[in-house]
Amino acid sequence: MALVPCPACNHPVSEQARACPSCGHPGSGERGGVARVLGNVAGTYISATSFASLVLGVVMFTGFSAIMITLILSHR
């Protein structure tokens, strides 16, 4: 298992890695699942940290919306 430079950011990445831990660029390993789908969206790649932040934001927005709707409907 050797380290090779990432073609996008030049960060050392394992040959078997699915994506670069620094920038999210798909690795030369098995390209499947979420990394491949997200990599094809608008020709960009999303890192795991960015994806986790996006999911957290959606969950927080949904929870806040549910609380606000409950408060509005309870005052009627």
From TrEMBL:
<keyword id="KW-1133">Transmembrane helix</keyword>
<feature type="transmembrane region" description="Helical">
    <location>
        <begin position="51"/>
        <end position="73"/>
    </location>
</feature>
<dbReference type="Pfam" id="PF13248">
    <property type="entry name" value="Zn_ribbon_3"/>
</dbReference>
<protein>
    <recommendedName>
        <fullName>Putative zinc-ribbon domain-containing protein</fullName>
    </recommendedName>
</protein>
<keyword id="KW-0812">Transmembrane</keyword>
<dbReference type="InterPro" id="IPR059113">
    <property type="entry name" value="Znf_ribbon"/>
</dbReference>
<keyword id="KW-0472">Membrane</keyword>
<feature type="domain" description="Putative zinc-ribbon">
    <location>
        <begin position="3"/>
        <end position="26"/>
    </location>
</feature>
